[in-house]
Amino acid sequence: MQTLKALLHFYSTITAKQILIGLVSLSIVAFFITQTAIADRKESLSWEPWLLEYSAVYCYGLVCPIIIFCCKKWSLDETHRYKSMLKVAILYIPFTFLFISLMIGTRHLAYLLIEGRLWDNGDLLTRYIYEYPKTIGFYCAIVFGAYTKVYFETYQKEQIHAAKLNEQLLTAQIAVLRNQLQPHFLFNTLNLISSTMYQDVDKADSIIMRLGNLLRYSLAAEQKPWVTFNEELQAMTSFLEIAQLRFGDRLSTKIEIEPQVESVLIPAMLLQPLLENAVKYGIEPSDDMGGVHLKAYSEDGMLCITIMNPLLEYENQQPSFGIGLQNTKERLELLYGDSANVSLVQQGNNSIILTLTLPMQ
User: Fold this and answer.
1) How far is CA 243 from the centre of its chain?
2) Pairing assessment for the beta strands 302-310 and 290-299 based on DSSP bridges
3) Which one of 50, 76, 284, 333 counts the least CB within 10 Å of its CB?
């Protein structure tokens, strides 16, 4: 009973479009079969060959969903393959009996409506025996087509499921990399506020305001993983201003941005760990004056970002360059694949240049 309900439900899911395509396909097949039947019989054209062949094709099409339903239900995976093949082979007997019965009944009804008599089908048992082997080819073709369709549908679902899992994994990986902000900067900023608030309240207030802007931007990045370069730059300006308040005259900053790259989308918080590395390894270890130079421009359809800072402890950091740069490289690889590039080169004896190359989007 459950199987019958499931079968009826399967029939109810057939759309009008599928019915129309099926009717057109069956009509074309029936047309060619009828032409062959007329040619073989050497008879003058009449309505009988058309009725006989079209009734057979349409009746077969009407019960074909049973085969498709069973093929979907009987899996051909390794654990059920032989059992399912046996079921499909056995199904041929009742399925063909149902088809022949439906075809004979349809022909009787048609003859009653047209000529007022039943169709002369001869001996009923002989008719069944005659019709059974004729349908083996059609049955095998439908089974093959049904399992092919099931295979591709299953394959497509698996691909979609795998793509969703990869997307979730990618999102999680990117979130982890983006959220691994070094506490070094935050601790130093809090210490700076603590040491400044009793000596220079205005300066401490300025640091707190800029830190608040940066943290607010970092939290917003959770909901907005892509930002324009201009939005990123505004947040990073707060970062550099905090660093300038911390190091005073020891740090100078220079920012050069081409107007056409301001609206380019980049991953949020992309520049923070790189600028932090520039300050941490290029300014903090030395008492000498140093500068951080940020530049962004377009070249051959790519967004190029360079960060230049003094060469101090970077000699001891290669080739890892610290966790900030390593996370950035992994982020860009996940987001852009081979389309993005990160390089770190020494310029003379006094400076080092980090270059990011991203597709403009």
Assistant:
1) 41
2) antiparallel
3) 333
Q: Cα Rg for the chain, rounded, in angstroms?
A: 38
Amino acid identity, residue 8? L
Tokens of 117: 């008599």
CA distance 151 to 66: 18
> Is the omega angle on the peptide bond into residue 319 within 30 degrees of 0, that is, cis?
yes
pLDDT in tens, 105-143: 999 999 988 888 888 888 888 888 888 888 888 899 889
Q: Is the dihedral of CA 133, 146, 141, 19 positive or negative?
A: positive
How many helices (DSSP H) and strands (DSSP E) are in the chain? 12, 7
Side-chain half-sphere CA neighbours of 24 within 13 A: 6
Q: What angle do CA 73, 12, 155 make, to 5 degrees?
A: 40
**What are the phi and psi torsion angles at 268 (to 5°)?**
-65, 145
**Helix extents (H) in 248-347:** 272-282, 314-317, 322-336
Residues in the chain: 361
pTM of the model as a whole: 0.51
Residues 6+ apart with CB under 8 A from 329: 342
Q: Where are the alpha helices (DSSP H) in the chain?
A: 2-12, 16-41, 47-73, 81-115, 124-134, 136-179, 183-196, 201-220, 229-247, 272-282, 314-317, 322-336
Q: What is the pLDDT of residues 296-319, one digit of tens each?
A: 999 888 999 999 998 875 444 444
pLDDT digits (tens, 9 = 90+) for 135-179: 888 899 889 988 898 888 888 888 887 777 676 666 655 555 455
| Domains of the chain by start residue, with CATH | 2-169 (no CATH), 181-359 (3.30.565.10)
> Which pLDDT band holds residue 294 (cuts at 50, 70, 90)?
very high
Beta strands in the chain, from DSSP E residues, in sequence order: 226-228, 251-257, 265-267, 290-299, 302-310, 341-347, 351-359
Task: Tell the burial category of 275 from Cβ atoms under 10 Å away from its Cβ (0-12, 13-18, 19+).
Answer: buried
